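Why do we care about 3D structure at all? Because function follows from shape, and shape follows, mostly, from sequence. That is the central idea of this module. The next example makes it concrete: a single protein chain, its amino acid sequence, and then its structure expressed as tokens.
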Amino acid sequence: MLIRLLLYGVFGWCAEIVWTALHDAVGARWRGEPIDPRLAGRTYLWMFPIYGGGGLAFEIAHAGVAHWPWVARGLLYMLGCFAVEYASGWAIKRATGAVPWDYSATRWNVHALIRLDYAPVWFVFGLLLERVQQVAHVIEACVR
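And the structure:
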């Protein structure tokens, strides 16, 4: 289980770095600004245990809904991602006084902790995690 926790944490970090780099580039293009050619992405140390623990929780959810149609699974995963993001953001804010990701300046935020306009992203991310789970189990079996 520790190996899968680490794999999900690393996958989440990498996905977030790619997402933020591309998100910033597209945003700059849309605003008519020059795109930073470095495509610098970012994440937070806090995210590693969130992605790692969220990945393990995902495995439990996936086991119960693997037979569902992909649209229903994607909707459930989206809701789960929102719940994990909201709960972890709330806990970090309560513990430190600030949340690393502050969505307060965005239109569709809920308490500055989640962005409802990210629903399609979390939908796809959850379905992608089904494939990541398969890879994680293969890697774990190889390491044993």
